[in-house]
Amino acid sequence: MSFALETLTVPAAIQTDSAKSLAIPARVRDPRLDVVRGIALFIIFIAHVPSNWLWSVIPARFGLSDATDSFVFISGIASAIAFGGTFLRHGFWTGAGRIAYRCAQLGVAHLFLLFAIIAVAYQGSVWTGRDLVGALGVGHLLASPAQAIFEAFWLHWVPASLDIMPVYIVLLAMVPGMMLLEKLDRRLPLVVSLALYLANAAYGLDPIADSSTGRHWLLNPFAWQVIFFLGFAFKRGWLPVPPRSATLTVLAWGMVAVGVIYRVLPDGLGLGDAALWHALGGQLDKTNLDPFRLAHFLATAYLLHGLLIARPGIAKARILRPFEHLGQQGLSVFVGGMIVANVAGLIILKVGDGPLGQIIINLGGFLTLYGIARVMGWYKSAPWSGKKA
Question: What is the C-alpha radius of gyration for the chain, rounded to an integer number of angstroms?
């Protein structure tokens, strides 16, 4: 499980003239980030559709990490681009105010998504005669609606599988503090991030997602912040991007191979002690971003970065342009994708998960997400603000 939901941009050539040093540089979009984020969004859609055949071929089936890691990492990069400069150009309070505004926007989007999915489930229950609302795990809302709604506003009630956006809200809320630490020493934010990650591993800082059952968040923000701020750090220059080297490449491929062997080959097919493979499985804690999972993601990110550096034209390939559009409208596509995934589940209940149902949910789902991206792009361009043709 983004979550960079702001415009992805990269600075143009830096002006060296002292008279222009304070000018805000023109910025252009980086298609690589948009494409990767768009692909991650579609994979997240696939993963949330029940009985989807494509679920068996997404990257998570062949490794120790998945699209969630990519999304959160890219969110860190994009947040550094979208918000980092605001703190430097306009000061701390303006930057913090912009972060607060964005968190409020995401909070509204989260509440809309929550109640939209409940509405879809209710209508689906009417159509199918099954209790789809109960299957969502929203018993707290049904038993104590006023309390649940109050807690939902403060992210103290987060239904299962709907905590991606709340996690992003928490991570964004940490940015002002990290920017203050940057003023003291650019290494401090990463030190604090790592310390928080280790403190969570030692003391269990995961927040409550449902006060009625004691259930915790599916994704613990105090663990996942480390991957978010790694992306943030690379973009802000707190941490240098690892250079391309044969040694790092071999190590990265080795980590990828471990993931493939673990996922594809039962007990490693005799490659070492089977107990070691079972022990590895016991360590793959997604909620708290297990170190093996983090290492696997960083290995795949390193290899992908090297590929995009060596072949920059890949991200501009025509076949990937639809994914670029998806990545440009991250928030809208994510919210729409989660709703469409639930509608797709209803379609499967009606027509089955045979070839026809799979074509409808996957092709139709992708076209719907692409349509959402293009429509939102049109709205954001504000064509009504220009001169009349």
Answer: 22
- What is the C-alpha to C-alpha distance for residues 278 and 371, in angstroms, rounded to an integer? 43
Half-sphere exposure of 152 (CA within 13 A, CB side): 21
Q: Write the CA distances from 239 to 44, 90, 96, 187, 190, integer angstroms.
A: 29, 24, 23, 8, 8
- Single-letter code of the amino acid located at 273: D
Q: What predicted TM-score, i.e. pTM, was given to this entire model?
A: 0.85
CA-CA-CA-CA torsion sign (230, 218, 65, 44): negative
Distance CA 92, CA 84 (A): 10
Token readout for 7 is 């415009």
DSSP bridge partners of 215: 210
* Whole-angstrom distance, CA of residue 107 vs CA of residue 152: 9
Looking at this protein, which amino acid is placed at residue 373?
Answer: A
Distance CA 1, CA 202 (A): 24
The SS3 call for residue 155 is: coil
Inter-residue contact 334 to 5 (CB < 8 Å):
yes
Burial 204-229 (b: 16+ CB within 10 A, else e): eebbbbbeeeebbbbbbbbbbbbbbb
Question: Whole-angstrom Cα distance, residue 229 to residue 75?
Answer: 9
Q: Mention every residue, 6+ apart, whose C-beta is less than 8 A from residue 61.
A: 55, 263
Which residue has 């600075």 as its token pair?
11
How far is the C-alpha of 11 from the C-alpha of 29, rounded, in Å?
Answer: 9
pLDDT tens by residue, 74-123: 999 999 998 988 998 999 999 999 999 999 999 999 999 999 999 999 98
The answer to whether the CB of 360 falls within 8 A of the CB of 351 is: yes
SS3 29: strand
Read off the pLDDT band of 15 (50, 70, 90): very low
Query: Residue 337 corresponds to which tokens in the numbers above?
Result: 């994708």
